[in-house]
Amino acid sequence: PRPLECAQINYNIDDLGNVSVIIIFTNEIWSALIRTIWSVVNRTPKSLLKEIILVDDFSDKFELSEPLQEYVDHHFDDLVKIIRLPKREGLIRARLVGARQAKGDVLLFLDSHCEVTVGWLEPLMKVIKEDRTNVVCPVIDIISDQDLEYVSGNRYYFQVGGFIWSGHFIWIDTDEKSLRKNPTSVVKTPTMAGGLFAINREYFFQIGAYDEQMEIWGGENLELSFRLWQCGGKLYIHPCSHVGHIFRDYHPYSFLGKDSHGMNTLRTALVWMDEYVRYFFLHRKDLKSKIHEIDVASRIELRKRLNCKSFRWYLENVYTEKKYIYDQDVVAYGTVRNPITNLCIDNLNKAEEQKHEMGMCVYECMDVPLDEWTNQMFSFMKNGYIRREEGCLTIDEYATHRVLLTKCPSKNSNKKRKHLLLKKMQTWIHTKGGQIRNEHYNLCLTTESLKSSDNLRVVECNQDDLYQIWWFQKYVDIEL
């Protein structure tokens, strides 16, 4: 699945150092774990592979106890080591246990349901050898969770990591033209998914390893990503390194009723986001009351000791595209209300970051302050887009009276024709009379004949139609 040009690169294996591969598992499916181990052993030059460290995070499946130990001893001698944790620690602390036991020059963290490909390791090792502050991830391919088939994607295109203000990881577009021009060069990524990456062992601990006070799983990938960039490191994805990963609908960890992702991300936000933390709390108001429950003093001290840059610097210098901030570069923001019906544009609590498009609806307007993110919050951007974080209001290409929330245009879109068409369907004008009009189609948003939960529609514009009047909650530098 990798670019053909990758095969032409010659590596001086003797000069790359060696690696400790660290794999955490808890009640992993036997076949998935064994597939991961064998792929590493079979597809890694022997001189590079110092050890594989399996950390058993308190599994209770019988086959993962003595049978696994016997299997490993029989097939791999001392190459594969198993560390058994006496109680459930969670992914973050389990990885720290493995890292502290590791002897390799480089630590390489893998999930326990992967398959590495031929030539996967050498590119990662070379980038770290060139600069120990480089941290590098492979391109992650999909292994079907239905039939375990390795699914190859576009060998010349992949996405990089981003984030949304609620503290979740997302994938964002890269410039395909640039990727094709330099098919074997590393690509800067603002964040990483977190499951698969390589880092110099000494540098990992020098920069603060993981935050040990984080619980179970979640948020550690963004925390490490922000810390790397803000504190002098660099984070890349290498197009010549591909690893398949089984993406599943369930999680092996039991969270015991705790929002570990939320609390971990709260720690991240308080330490690294500076004044931008208010955008996190806009989405996670529930976590504001939890601040007193956590102590981040040691991580703030780490940040001072490492002389790290600001989060503003990160957004302005690292983030691949200008990061959406709901009250910046806007004409207006907040709820979007039709005063005649008291209906507001509403996404009906749909998970936007997981979908490419969804129908937009109307619902009875909620009386909420501007510092509380709801299903009815939108920004009217200076460029004419009406958007939430991961989507823009779009006229349906196939049913032009219907309005969707779809992915916003990206300067890095790898489909330029589709990008231009989307731009026409997503660019709006807010008139002085209150209409919201799509200039290309000359259609206006309306609430005529609509009730709560109905799909938002557009009709032919009529400046005398009161159902076509919309007002945002707050206007910025404009008179309407």
UniProtKB/TrEMBL annotation:
The keyword Transmembrane applies. Pathway: Protein modification; protein glycosylation. Residues 330-473 form the Ricin B lectin domain. GO terms for cellular component: Golgi membrane. One of its GO terms (molecular function) is polypeptide N-acetylgalactosaminyltransferase activity. Signal peptide: none annotated. It is a single-pass type II membrane protein. Its EC number is 2.4.1.-. It comes from the Eukaryota. Its main location: Golgi. Coiled coil: none annotated. Keywords: Disulfide bond, Glycosyltransferase, Golgi apparatus, Lectin, Manganese, Membrane, Metal-binding, Signal-anchor, Transferase, Transmembrane, Transmembrane helix. It is an enzyme of class 2 (transferase). Belongs to the glycosyltransferase 2 family. GalNAc-T subfamily. This is Polypeptide N-acetylgalactosaminyltransferase. The lineage of its organism: Eukaryota, Metazoa, Ecdysozoa, Arthropoda, Chelicerata.
